[in-house]
């Protein structure tokens, strides 16, 4: 969306009307069935059958070893309800909707981490509830799963404002609550409560945010599950986890040692549940209970994220500097530029888009980074008239590099048009003119959309430097051509 949202009602309207209407509708209907004593198999089946993709995913989860150990094949929703239970099918439908509604839109790191934590909290809470209440454990699971609904919805749908907050939270010594309030005009807690009310998610999810209701065993189970999922991120032997395990032991009537074993078993179960629900990419965010595995996972996660390589960066800049002083090959110049920005500066997706077809449009000339191959085939952007400019034309005409998605460039946000957002996604990016001296060639585009990490100042400095050196290389080439 073009417009910025500010304040609780503004966000609720945006999420309900523009971003998540289908998810809101499914969640409301599934929760309504929970609140009716006489809900029928037919009514639940009707809600799930409205969406063929949801139906097939619910059946796939229902056929998994986790929910259906007897492995009797389930081909219909009504059969699933008979075999694995009304509440379980409703819970699966709601969980799958949440994963699909958010992860397919913006699989940014913050969203994956929080969704994984929410699943972990849900499994912990349900298993704690099993000790103290005789039924409705599924309600506890859902209340814990949706405990951070506002924050989940923001990271899934916040677009440029999500990039802005990610950047603010990356600053050392930042006050999280203050940063959230500045960007959203409300708190995550208020946004969650607003959505819970607006989507009619039920009393338990609402009560779980109110510390006065912790004498209700179901509410306290949600509270403990949520705290365990947060404390586990500090380590299974951390003081924070130890404190919550002591509380849990007292609550369910076991020793702290037994409670810790239950917590570790639930963490392993949460990994299975996330994988069963088709969200296996989340499992690396749930703390593993094997110490050796924990160390290995941390190393793998670090290796998966593209990191700047200062040695490569310096080499690429030096090579371009040399190519500017003697006749260089065009292909070599562009290769040095792309690899320097990608492997050197650590920018995940980079594209050179050049003026083509009689300077009537921008076409992708070179790309690098995961998932960019398609741009070579279908990235085509008409050069628009001055009174109807977009960011590509604007940058080329003004001959300056821009960092979009930070306060300094907010006044240019409307130049990031719908076709550009549809093709490249939403959020922060760098864009600079590609020039041969003063002759307009095209633009250089770069972002970090794969991981959703905020772009950094050092990367922008390198991006500007590469643009300047490439301009000199191309000018030298054209003079000698």
UniProtKB/TrEMBL annotation:
InterPro entries: GAF-like_dom_sf, HDOD, RNase_Y/CdgJ. Coiled coil: none annotated. Residues 20-215 form the HDOD domain. This is HDOD domain-containing protein.
């Amino acid at each position: 969306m073009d417009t910025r949202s500010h304040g609780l009602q503004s966000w609720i309207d945006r999420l309900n009307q523009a971003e998540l209407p289908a998810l809101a509708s499914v969640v409301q209907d599934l929760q309504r069935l929970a609140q009716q004593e006489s809900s029928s198999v037919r009514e639940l089946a009707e809600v799930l059958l409205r969406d063929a993709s949801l139906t097939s995913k619910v059946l796939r989860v229902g056929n998994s070893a986790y929910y259906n150990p007897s492995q009797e094949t389930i081909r219909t929703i009504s059969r699933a309800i008979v075999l694995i239970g009304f509440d379980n099918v409703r819970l699966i439908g709601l969980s799958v909707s949440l994963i699909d509604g958010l992860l397919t839109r913006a699989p940014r790191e913050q969203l994956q981490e929080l969704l994984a934590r929410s699943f972990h909290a849900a499994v912990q809470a349900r298993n704690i509830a099993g000790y103290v209440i005789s039924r409705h454990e599924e309600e506890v699971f859902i209340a814990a799963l949706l405990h951070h609904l506002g924050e989940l919805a923001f990271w899934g749908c916040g677009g440029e404002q999500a990039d802005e907050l990610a950047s603010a939270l990356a600053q050392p010594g930042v006050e999280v609550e203050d940063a959230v309030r500045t960007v959203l005009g409300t708190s995550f807690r208020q946004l969650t409560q607003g959505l819970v009310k607006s989507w009619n998610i039920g009393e338990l999810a609402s009560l779980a945010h109110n510390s006065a209701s912790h004498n209700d065993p179901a509410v306290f189970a949600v509270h403990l599950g949520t705290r365990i999922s947060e404390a586990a991120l500090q380590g299974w032997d951390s003081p924070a986890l130890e404190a919550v395990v002591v509380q849990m032991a007292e609550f369910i009537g076991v020793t702290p040692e037994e409670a810790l074993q239950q917590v570790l078993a639930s963490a392993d179960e949460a990994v299975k549940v996330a994988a069963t629900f088709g969200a296996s990419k989340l499992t690396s965010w749930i703390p593993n209970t094997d110490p050796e595995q924990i160390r290995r996972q941390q190393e793998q996660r670090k290796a998966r994220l593209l990191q700047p390589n200062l040695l490569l960066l310096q080499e690429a800049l030096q090579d371009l500097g040399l190519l500017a002083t003697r006749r260089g090959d065009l292909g070599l110049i562009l290769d040095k530029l792309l690899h320097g920005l990608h492997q050197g500066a650590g920018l995940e997706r980079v594209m050179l888009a050049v003026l083509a077809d009689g300077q009537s449009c921008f076409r992708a000339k070179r790309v690098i980074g995961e998932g960019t191959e398609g741009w070579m085939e279908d990235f085509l952007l008409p050069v628009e008239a001055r009174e109807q400019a977009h960011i590509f034309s604007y940058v080329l005409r003004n001959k300056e590099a821009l960092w979009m998605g930070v306060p300094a460039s907010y006044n240019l946000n409307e130049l990031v048009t719908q076709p550009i957002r549809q093709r490249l996604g939403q959020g922060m990016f760098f864009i600079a003119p590609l020039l041969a001296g003063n002759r307009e060639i095209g633009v250089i585009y770069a972002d970090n959309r794969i991981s959703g990490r905020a772009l950094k100042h050092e990367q922008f400095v390198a991006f500007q430097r590469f643009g300047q050196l490439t301009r000199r290389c191309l000018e030298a080439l054209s003079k000698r051509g």
